[in-house]
Amino acid sequence: MDLQDEHFPQLALVNLEQGATVSRRGLIPEILQRLGHRPSLPDEPDDLAEPDRLISAGQPVRVAMTHFDLAANRPQYGVDLFAALRYLIMTTRKLTLLVQSRTPFAGLLPRDHPLSEIDIKTLELRSKP
């Protein structure tokens, strides 16, 4: 990704098309590994405590998730995952989350979803004809 290579080398790039990210059990370690951690996670729902602990204890981090439109079709991620991300983004301010999607972000989540309450800055990029 040019953004990572040219501007933000510490950007943790997570591709939701990757097989390892299909389950929440795979997504969380992938995020943490991209941030330089080698976690050992307990089973759900206790698995969310480790990213909270590791991210909250350190410097603010940036995570980019590509193909985020796939998240809308993955109920296995669970509402708790998105609530935990919202907490890290808005309360502790330790996480900046960049999402890439072919679907407008507002169309991905129901109105009462935890991520729908985040103050989101949207930038639509279109390819040149």
Write a compact overview of the structure shown.
Helix content is 30%, strand content 12%.
How would you explain this protein's 3D organization?
Helices cover about 30% and strands about 10% of the residues. It has a single domain (about 1-115), classed as P-loop containing nucleotide triphosphate hydrolases (Rossmann fold). It is α/β, with parallel strands linked by helices. The model has no long low-confidence stretch (mean pLDDT about 85). It starts with a helix and ends in a 30-residue tail after the last strand. The chain has helices at about 1-5, 25-35, 50-55, 80-90, and strands at about 10-15, 60-65, 95-100. It has a three-stranded parallel β-sheet with strand order 1-2-3. The chain has four helices and three strands, in the order αβααβαβ.
Q: Termini, distance in Å?
A: 21 Å
Regarding quaternary structure, what we see is single chain
Query: Strand sequence of the main sheet, in spatial order?
Result: 1-2-3
How many H/I helical runs? 4
Task: Tell me the number of structural domains.
Answer: 1
CATH architecture: 3-Layer(aba) Sandwich
Order of helices and strands: HEHHEHE
The percent range for helix content is: 25-40%
Name the CATH class: Alpha Beta
Quickly give the structural class.
Answer: alpha/beta
Name the CATH superfamily assignment. Answer: P-loop containing nucleotide triphosphate hydrolases
Low-confidence stretches: none
Mean pLDDT: 84
Largest sheet geometry: 3 strands, parallel
What integer value in Å does the Rg equal?
A: 14 Å
Number of strands: 3
